[in-house]
Design a protein that fits this description.
The protein is 89% helix and 0% strand. With 169 residues, it is mainly alpha-helical. α1 packs parallel to α3 and α1 runs antiparallel to α4.
C-alpha cells in the first residue's frame, strides 16, 4: 500500500506523529544543552571568577606598591613620604599574606601552577626593586638618576615579566 492510497485519518496521524516526535527531540536536545550550559556557568562562577578577582587584586596591590615607591622617591615632604611608606607596607602585606596565597589555592591545572610559580619568582624580583626604590626615596639618599633607574627597573620587570604571567593565569 502506498502513502497516496491511505485514508486521510491515517495520513493525519502519521503527520502529527512526525511533528510531535520532532518537537520532543528538539526539547530533549534543548534540555541537554541547557544542562551543559548550566555546568559551564557553574564552573565559571566557582573557579574562573575567583581566580580573576585574585589576579586583579595582585595588579592593584602591585600598582599601589609601585606608585607609593615612586611617590616617596619624588617628594621631599616628610609627611607624604611617611604616608606613601604606610601605603606601600599595607599593599605589600596584603599581596604576600592574602592575595598570593589566595590565588595559589584556586589553581588546579599544571599549567596554571607553573605560571603561578613563574609569577611568584618575578614578583619577588619586583618587590625587591620596589623595596630598594622606597628606601632610596624615603631616606633621600638618591640622586634623581638613581631614583629614575630604580623606577625604570621596576617598570621594565613589571611590563616584561609580571604582566604576561598575570594575563596568562
Amino acid at each position: 500500500m502506498t502513502f497516496s492510497k491511505l485514508k486521510l485519518r491515517i495520513k493525519m496521524r502519521i503527520g502529527f506523529s512526525v511533528v510531535v516526535t520532532f518537537i520532543l527531540l528538539m526539547g530533549l536536545i534543548g534540555v541537554s544543552e541547557l544542562t551543559l550550559l548550566s555546568r559551564e556557568t557553574e564552573q565559571l562562577a566557582q573557579k574562573r571568577i575567583p581566580q580573576l578577582e585574585r589576579v586583579y587584586e595582585i595588579a592593584i596591590d602591585f600598582h599601589t606598591m609601585l606608585n607609593s615607591a615612586r611617590n616617596a622617591s619624588l617628594t621631599t615632604n616628610p609627611e607624604v613620604k611617611k604616608q606613601q611608606k604606610s601605603n606601600y607596607e599595607k599593599a605589600k602585606e596584603n599581596l604576600l599574606q592574602n592575595t598570593i596565597p589566595g590565588l595559589e589555592a584556586l589553581l588546579f591545572t599544571e599549567k596554571g601552577k607553573q605560571l603561578f610559580s613563574t609569577l611568584k619568582g618575578n614578583l619577588s624580583e619586583v618587590i625587591a626593586l620596589d623595596d630598594k626604590a622606597l628606601d632610596l626615596g624615603y631616606t633621600n639618599k638618591q640622586t634623581e638618576k638613581a631614583a629614575m633607574d630604580a623606577i625604570n627597573g621596576i617598570l621594565t620587570l613589571e611590563i616584561f615579566h609580571v604582566s604576561p604571567c598575570v594575563r596568562a593565569i
